[in-house]
Every structure is written in C-alpha cells, then in structure tokens.
C-alpha cells in the first residue's frame, strides 16, 4: 500500500502527556436516561483515572441502530438533551460522543450522524460522518446526509481528527462503494491522532477484519488511532466491543475484551512509542458462543423479560439452545417442555430429561399422541383415502408449537426458536410449529457448526449435553424411523453449498465450478429460494455470520431465479 502521508511536514513532537479514555458500553436504543447515566458514570470513572479526554461510541446517546425512530422529532430532541447534559459534565475532562444532529440546510437529509467534541461545558466542535453504509444490515443513507466539510480539533496542544465508523474503511479511495476518503481530506491539516467512534456489529470474521483496517490506516497515515465500539445486543444485531488503540508502528497497542463493558485509559506518549502488541483471542466457536449468550441475555433484559421456554426434543439443536439459554438467563429462569409423540424414540425422551436435570431447569412432559389422534379423527373425513405425508408430520409440529405458546401466554416465558441455519435455509421447518418463537437463537449457525458448539459447551460445562444427543443421527421424529437425510443431503455436503450461496453470494455456475455435483447444487439452491416465504415469518435471528437471514439479506419471495 502506498504511504503518501508519511513524508508530510511534521512538527517536532512536544512531550505533553495526554490521557485518553475509551468507554466501551452497552447502550439501549431509545433509553436516553439509561444511556446518559452510563456515560456520566464513565466520565466520573475516567476522571478518577486521570483522563484528559473520554471517547464514547457512534450514536451513543440513542443506541444503534435507531432506525425509523430517527424520523421522530421528539427522539432527536431527547438526543440533543443528552448532548447538553454531557456538555455540562465536560468540566476538567473533554468528552467526545456520537449523536444525531440536525441539518440546517433544507436540501438533503434532515440529519447528520455526528461526533460532538465537548469541553468546558459547551460544544467545541462537531464532525459529521462522511461514509454512510447502505449494505447488509446498514441503511444509514435512509436517514443521514454525508459530511462535506472536515476540520481537526485542537486540544491540549494536539490536533485531533474525528472520524465515525465507516469513515476509516475507505483507505485512499480503495473502497469502490465510496468516492471520498475522510482522512485524506483531513491530512493537510496535519492531525496528531485519530479518534474513531464506531458501531461495528459482530460476526465471527469481523474482529480480525477491523484490526486489518486499523493497521492499514496506520500504514498509510502514520498516526495512532483510538477506536471505540459498542458492546451488547440490539435485537438480532450483536456488538462485541473490541475497542482498541493502534500505535504508529503498526501494532495493536491494546484491544479491549469482547462482550464486556469497560473503560480504559491510555497515555498518548506511551502509545506513540508503540512496541506492544495486545490482541484478544479470535477462535470462531468461542466467539459464536459468547455472542449468542450476549444476544439472548440482552434481548430478555432490554425488553424486561426474565424467563424463557424451550421445546426439548432430545435432539441437538434444542439441547444447544437450552444450554445457551441457561447460561444467559440462569437455569432457574429456563423452562423446557418435552412433547413426545408415538414416533419419538424412548432414547430421545430419556436424553431430554437427562439434559434438563443436568441444567437444573424445570421440565414438564406432555405427550402429544392423544391430541394428535383427536385432530386426525376430526380430519378423517377430509383426509380419507390419502396417504400419510407432510400434512400429518406438520400437524405434530404445530401441536407442539401450540402447547409451547400456551405455556408462554399463561406464565410469561418467551419461547426460543431452536431451528438452525441449515434447516432455515432449505425450509426444513414448519410454520406455526417448530418455527414459532420470539427469538431465533441458532438460526445463523449451520448444523455442522452446531455440532462444534455442542462439543465446546461440553468442554466448558463438564459434559452437560448427553453424548447420545450428539452422536445419534439427526431426526425430526415425525414418522417411523425418520432421518434428516431422508429429505436433505448430509449436512457435511449441504452446509458448504449453503455457505457459498448465502455468505459468498456465489451462483450455481460458480459453485458447480468448485467441484460440487450439479444436480445437488441446483436442488439445494432451489430449496433455499422457494422457502423465502417461511423466513419472512420467523423470529429475529441472532446474527453471528457475515450474512445472516433477516434484515441483512433481503430477497424477494416471488422470484424465478434458480426456481
């Protein structure tokens, strides 16, 4: 990469200690008083640690993403009130915070996504975000006007470049999505350091990618970068934190823990010296585990829910979901329901009961055969002389969904959906049956990854999942001797094709060219496309991959591509 700015005219470095605090916090969308109090507490903490400046994340006052709340004038007014309250707290310490601001020009969008620099009780400077992402889960150009002016901020003898999230992701105009590079615009003003306020969602590849981006910026500009991110979950979007400081020598001076709130203070002179490389571990399955636990916990706590209910079948998916729920909420707040039919094996019931006992959760057993037979008697005149097929299978799933929702309505626990990404992709699930639920826990985890997750949970928790649940062939148990492979390719063949189509957006020709069987590829892709209507009606899916079902993957239902 070219490094055109390393030869710029530089001023002699004046040794003047500046301590910068990064506040990695778990915000709650629209909870202005709660968000403000978190930040005020962090300001007090940073003052006690001797910080001169504290930096909060992108849209910290509102939480991210606020979406169409941004269209409410009262919502913006409350955000403005929060900035004013923080400005009053900027006494003896400067504060940088992300918040929406109004665009005074009639032409263009009504708002900017802004970084406020607060000092001595007032707003000293405001820098707007330049690069507004409109891909995957992002839709910022729907609400915000991009910046057209850039100005460094002078503070304690240093010149600070303020940037917001995506603004550092177009390095020297290498990103074809954008035509501007904010740091290129700021470099003629000779900044000494860069602050980046981010709302960078988790996926299991993103932490490594963020580090690559920071190092590339340092390589180009030769400046230290202080990067602060959100932590916690907002419905399906999860933030892992990982706030960090990159030194001018290209090393990551420090990376804050994932999925934890915290405030850390850094001495600018020490950062300038570099020589230290501190990064967090980035193994895929542990990251997915921590993200899912965070997603469940925050979904419940931020909505004011306390208890969850899970349909426990004796299969792997419901077992993993139940264990994750117990970790997130505590076993005392998880209830499981065993609903065997005439097709359920004795082993499945035994395995489910053993898992419930291992977890210490309440479990109940309601056999569904009597209910199923009553349905069949009512339907007999209409099903007469027709063979047993998917109608009878789905009837069992819908009975179970009804029972789970009945207990949810009666006692208040929120139903967790246990469908994995492989099943959700190919439509191997029943609407208003096993696809019921308020939150899809593993809907972004392929079946082969669920196996890895189960093994990881057993390593962490001392074999909590009975080994037979992991070892036995997966089955919906909706007809005698049923196996998933009766309807689907083996998961070790299915999942790689799904990954290429969903995450990599490869078409059939490209996937076939990789060596996959043509008939299998076309069969799998057709199943994905014709089942889009089911995914439109399912619960929010906790996002842990680079391309999850939900708001980040918008496909038409009525389409002929590959059908």
Brief synopsis:
By secondary structure, this protein is of the alpha/beta class.
Strand content range:
15-25%
Backbone CA Rg = 26 Å
| Fraction of residues in helix | 25-40%
Strand elements, count: 19
What count of helical segments does DSSP give? 17
Structural class: alpha/beta
Q: Examine the secondary-structure arrangement and name the CATH architecture of the largest domain.
A: 4-Layer Sandwich
- Main sheet overview: 6 strands, mixed
Terminal CA distance reads 44 Å
CATH class of the largest domain: Alpha Beta
Tell me the CATH superfamily of the largest domain.
Carbon-nitrogen hydrolase
What is the global morphology?
elongated
Contiguous low-pLDDT stretches (5 residues minimum) are 6-15
CATH topology of the largest domain: Nitrilase/N-carbamoyl-D-aminoacid amidohydrolase
Q: How many domains make up the 3D coordinates? A: 2
Notable characteristics:
563 residues; alpha/beta; Nitrilase/N-carbamoyl-D-aminoacid amidohydrolase; Rossmann fold; 2 domains; 6-stranded mixed β-sheet; 17 helices
Question: Can you walk me through this structure?
Answer:
With 563 residues, the chain is an alpha/beta fold. It is built from 17 helices and 19 strands. It has a six-stranded mixed sheet with strand order 5-4-3-2-1-14. A hairpin with an 8-residue loop joins β3 and β4 (111-119).
Q: How would you summarize the topology of this molecule?
A:
Blueprint: E1 19-24, H1 32-48, E2 53-55, H2 73-89, E3 94-102, E4 111-119, E5 122-128, E6 153-155, E7 158-164, H3 182-186, E8 193-197, H4 206-221, E9 225-228, E10 231-234, E11 237-240, E12 244-246, E13 252-255, E14 262-267, H5 268-273, H6 284-303, E15 308-311, H7 316-329, E16 334-338, H8 346-359, E17 362-365, H9 369-383, H10 390-411, E18 414-417, H11 421-426, E19 439-440, H12 447-461, H13 467-471, H14 491-502, H15 508-513, H16 518-530, H17 532-535
Helix pairs in contact: 1-2, 6-7, 6-12, 7-8, 7-12, 9-10, 14-16
């Amino acid at each position: 990469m070219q490094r055109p700015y390393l030869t710029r005219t530089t001023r002699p470095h004046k040794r003047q200690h500046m301590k910068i605090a990064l506040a990695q916090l778990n915000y709650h969308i629209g909870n202005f008083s709660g968000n403000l109090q978190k930040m005020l507490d962090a300001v007090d903490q940073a003052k006690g640690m001797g910080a001169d400046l504290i930096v909060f994340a992108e849209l910290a006052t509102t939480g991210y993403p606020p979406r169409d709340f941004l269209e409410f004038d009262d919502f913006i007014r409350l955000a403005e009130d929060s900035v004013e309250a923080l400005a009053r707290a900027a006494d003896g310490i400067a504060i940088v915070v992300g918040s929406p601001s109004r665009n005074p020009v009639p032409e263009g969008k009504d708002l900017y996504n802004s970084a406020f620099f607060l000092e001595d009780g007032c707003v000293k400077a405001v820098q707007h975000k330049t690069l507004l992402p409109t891909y995957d889960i992002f839709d910022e150009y729907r609400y915000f006007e991009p910046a057209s002016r850039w100005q460094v901020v002078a503070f304690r003898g240093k010149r600070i470049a303020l940037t917001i999230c995506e603004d550092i992701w177009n390095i020297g105009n290498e990103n074809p999505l954008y035509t501007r590079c904010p740091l290129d615009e700021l470099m003629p003003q000779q900044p000494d350091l860069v602050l980046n306020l981010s709302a960078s969602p988790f996926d299991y590849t993103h932490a490594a990618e963020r580090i690559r981006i920071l190092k590339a910026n340092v390589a180009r500009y030769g400046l230290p970068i202080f990067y602060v991110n959100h932590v916690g979950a907002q419905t399906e979007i999860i933030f892992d934190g990982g706030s960090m400081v990159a030194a001018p020598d290209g090393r990551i001076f420090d990376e804050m823990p994932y999925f934890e709130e915290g405030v850390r203070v850094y001495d600018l002179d020490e950062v300038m010296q570099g020589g230290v490389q501190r990064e967090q571990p980035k193994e895929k399955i542990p990251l997915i585990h921590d993200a899912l636990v965070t997603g469940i916990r925050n979904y419940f706590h931020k909505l004011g829910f306390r208890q969850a209910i899970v349909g426990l079948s004796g299969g792997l998916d419901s077992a993993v979901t139940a264990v994750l729920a117990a970790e997130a909420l505590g076993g005392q707040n998880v209830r499981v329901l065993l609903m065997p039919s005439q097709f359920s094996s004795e082993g499945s019931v035994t395995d489910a009961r053993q898992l419930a006992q291992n977890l210490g959760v309440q479990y109940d057993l309601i056999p569904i055969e009597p209910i199923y037979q009553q349905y069949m008697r009512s339907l007999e005149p209409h099903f007469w002389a027709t063979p047993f097929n998917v109608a009878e299978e789905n009837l069992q799933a819908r009975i179970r969904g009804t029972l789970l929702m009945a207990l949810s309505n009666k006692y208040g626990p929120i139903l967790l959906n246990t469908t994995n990404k492989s099943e959700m992709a190919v439509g191997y699930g029943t609407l208003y049956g096993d696809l019921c639920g308020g939150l899809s826990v593993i809907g972004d985890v392929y079946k082969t990854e669920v196996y890895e997750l189960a093994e990881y949970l057993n390593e962490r928790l001392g074999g909590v999942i009975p080994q037979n649940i992991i070892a036995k062939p997966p089955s919906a148990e909706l007809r005698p001797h049923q196996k998933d492979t009766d309807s689907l390719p083996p998961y070790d063949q299915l999942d790689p094709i799904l990954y290429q189509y969903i995450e990599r957006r490869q078409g059939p020709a490209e996937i076939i060219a990789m060596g996959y069987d043509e008939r299998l590829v076309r069969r799998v892709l057709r199943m994905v496309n014709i089942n889009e209507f089911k995914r439109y009606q399912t619960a929010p899916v906790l996002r842990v991959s680079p391309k999850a079902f939900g708001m980040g993957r918008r496909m038409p239902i009525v389409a002929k591509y590959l059908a």
